[in-house]
Amino acid sequence: MQEIKMNNCEISKRWEWERIQARLFKVSVKQLALTQYQQGGGFFINQAKNISITFLSAMAVVHGQITIGAMLAIQYIIGQLNAPIEQFIQFIQSTQDALISLERLNEIHGMKDEAPPLLPGENGNGRELTAGISYLPEDHGIALTNMSFKYPGAGNEPVLKDIDLHIPEGKMTAIVGISGSGKTTLLKMLMKFYTPIRGEIRVGEHRLDYINNKLWRSKCGSVMQDSYIFSDSIAHNIAVSDEVPDMKTLIRAAKVANILEFIESLPLGFNTKIGAEGTGISQGQRQRIIIARAVYKNPEYIFFDEATNALDAKNETIIMENLESFFKNKTVVVAAHRLSTVKNADQIIVLDKGRIIERGTHQELTKLKGEYFELVRDQLELGS
């Protein structure tokens, strides 16, 4: 409602709603008409049957073929058939509704399960993995080789094209670029939400496809632009996977995310309920809760996508200082527009239109005076 009022579009939104209601009304009228046709048709068949059999039995009595008692018996039997025929018509209507519901359910059940593909076997035929590899290799580095991806749909251009990238274990890799360059898509592919259309992603010597999804995601923590806040207590929003959160870990995570002071100022503390999608808290507080969620999990791999874009400069500085110690010995991939959050990364990758155009450290890339230099200059970070 705030957006509607701010953009003065009450009238257009009202008419949009009324057009939807008009279409729904037309559908309801058609449904009602169809119901009347079916009921009327069933009633017509029923009565036509009664009249026809009554006429034929009466003619048989007139011609002496049956007695009046036999005719009354026939009428009784016909009367007993009326109710089943009406029930059969109602059953047809219920069947139509059920088929529509089943069609919608089949759209979900027809989708492929998240499962690894065939792993090449010794005989070349391959064997199916039902759960995937249940351990991580010794080398925890991630390698992307000639990887491309595009979203399903006719005519869609690839979002990522021929990506060759090595993300070293225990180091911080930053991905920068203008909006729409493919940063978020790349992070979601590393978390196994999408699979490449060409090329591969490997963790050590294993393909990411073959690693058990549950195992991989248990090792990953993320702060995404579209991360969700549940309608639950703050404690359960931070410790999402734990039915009974560990208070020591909870407090540590809140400290790292610089939100412990705010939580302790609330009457119910960690037990304070917040609404769906973070109703009742600010955007910055919402983002800090999501950061605390990633810290609480204490993962080996961390994926941040614009993790501090809703924070003020002071909170951002404090949180980034806290995260520096948390990031030690962890494999971190950060996508950001704010270059102040990525300039200390071990390597910086510059994406443009789905391709890697530059890579190196902050100092190397600023000396290169290419696309990264332009991004730095636009944000007045070159002198810092």
UniProtKB/TrEMBL annotation:
Protein localization: Cell membrane
Stated name of the protein: ATP-binding cassette domain-containing protein
Keyword DNA-binding attached: no
Record field: transmembrane: none
Alphabetized InterPro entries for the sequence: AAA+_ATPase, ABC1_TM_dom, ABC1_TM_sf, ABC_transporter-like_ATP-bd, ABC_transporter-like_CS, P-loop_NTPase, Type_1_exporter
Span of domain ABC transmembrane type-1: 1-97
Pfam families on file: ABC_tran (PF00005)
UniProt membrane topology term: Multi-pass membrane protein
Source organism: Compostibacter hankyongensis
Domain ABC transporter: 142-378
Main location group: membrane
Keyword set, alphabetical order: ATP-binding, Membrane, Nucleotide-binding, Transmembrane, Transmembrane helix
